[in-house]
Write a structure and sequence with these properties.
Layout: H1 14-33, H2 36-47, H3 53-129
Protein name: LSME1 protein
Transmembrane segments: 65-89
Pfam family, one: DUF4577
Length: 130
C-alpha cells in the first residue's frame, strides 16, 4: 500500500492573497465612505459582478410577477362584478314575483270585502224584516 503524500501541490497563492487584501481594503473603504442606504446598492452591484445581469433578470421577473398579479386581480374583480350583477337581477326577479303576488292578494282581499259587505247587508235586511 502506498502512503498518502503529505505534500500538496498548491498553485502560487501569493496572487490570491493580494486580491484578498485589496478586496478587504475596498470593503473597508466602502464602509467608511458610503452611507447606509448606498451601501446596499453597492453590495448588490458587487454580488452581480457589476454587470447588472441579476438585476436585469430580477427586474424582468418583478415585471412578470406584477403583470400576472394584475391579470389575476382583474379576473377576480370581473368575477365579483359578474356575481353582483347576477344577484341584482335575481333580486329584481324575486321582487317582481312578490309584487305581482301582493297585487293579486290585494284584489282577492277587496273581493272578499265586497262579498262580506253584501252578506252583512243581506243579514241586516233579513234581521230587520223579522
Amino acid at each position: 500500500m502506498e502512503k498518502p503524500s503529505l505534500e500538496i501541490n498548491l498553485p502560487d497563492t501569493h496572487e490570491e492573497g493580494k486580491l484578498y487584501v485589496v478586496d478587504s481594503l475596498n470593503n473597508l473603504n466602502k464602509l467608511n465612505v458610503c452611507p447606509d442606504g448606498s451601501q446596499h446598492a453597492l453590495d448588490e452591484e458587487e454580488n452581480t459582478g457589476g454587470t447588472g445581469e441579476n438585476m436585469g433578470g430580477s427586474n424582468i421577473r418583478n415585471q412578470c410577477l406584477f403583470f400576472v398579479t394584475f391579470i389575476l386581480t382583474l379576473i377576480v374583480s370581473l368575477a365579483l362584478v359578474s356575481f353582483v350583477i347576477f344577484l341584482i337581477i335575481q333580486t329584481r326577479n324575486k321582487m317582481d314575483q312578490i309584487s305581482s303576488r301582493l297585487i293579486s292578494e290585494k284584489k282577492n282581499i277587496e273581493e272578499l270585502k265586497k262579498m262580506n259587505n253584501m252578506i252583512l247587508k243581506q243579514l241586516n235586511q233579513s234581521g230587520i224584516k223579522e
